[in-house]
Design goal:
PGM_Phosphatase, Rossmann fold, His_Pase_superF_clade-1, His_PPase_superfam, 5 helices, 209 residues, 30% helix, six-stranded mixed sheet, alpha/beta
């Protein structure tokens, strides 16, 4: 079965602590660039046969994809389905539990199952599953690297594992510049995505405080 690695982007330059969501201008920090290079080095050292690199359209994802693409002599394709989840809080400060307790946020927080503050989990799962299956079908004879964002990657994993979408964000196993891998059964009538592993090739690079 084709293997698809979904790579979370590296550390972002964000000195003001903005919840950047889908905002287009946020780039990798110097640390994030080192993380992206560490992932490329890891894949090459592991003799991973990467034949295609596809990225979210957001700048931080494109920059994370660049060292992997360069290491394998590939162009970066772009797939809008890999974009960050939409979030009503984007553009403001990252909300703290105390801030979320304010009555003005109660309507947005009314349904954590959906969730009511942003793109529904089921919609994220559907677009990520389709992107993963299409990536495997486009490159069935070698591995593909997709570059995306924490929540869509985590939702894709729990969807593949058949678990509940409702979760504590602190429990997500999806570190910066981590690889969440899937095997794809391309059966014509019912393609199936299976979680195949998780690794953190940039874990040795400390995140600045």
């Amino acid at each position: 079965m084709p293997r698809v690695h979904v790579l979370r982007h590296g550390h972002v330059h964000n000195p003001d602590g903005v919840l950047y969501g889908r905002l287009p201008e946020f780039r990798l920090s110097d640390t994030g660039e080192r993380m992206a290079q560490a992932v490329a080095d890891h894949l090459v050292a592991a003799s991973e046969p990467v034949g295609r690199v596809v990225s979210s359209p957001l700048l931080r994802a494109q920059q994370t994809a660049a060292p992997v693409a360069a290491a394998y002599g590939l162009e970066i394709a772009t797939d809008d389905r890999l974009i960050e989840a939409d979030n009503a809080f984007a553009g403001g400060p990252t909300p703290t539990p105390l801030a979320l307790a304010h009555p003005r946020h109660w309507w947005l927080l009314r349904n954590p199952w959906r969730p009511s503050w942003g793109e529904p989990y089921r919609e994220q799962a559907a677009r990520m599953r389709a992107a993963i299956v299409d990536a495997a079908a486009a490159n069935p004879d070698s591995a593909t690297v997709l570059v995306s964002h924490q929540l869509p990657i985590w939702v894709a994993r729990i969807d593949a594992e058949g678990r509940s979408f409702l979760h504590d964000p602190r429990s997500r196993q999806c570190a910066l510049a981590s690889l969440t891998s899937f095997d794809v059964d391309l059966a014509p009538d019912a393609p199936r995505v299976t979680f195949a592993g998780y690794s953190t090739p940039a874990a040795h690079i400390g995140v600045p405080r």
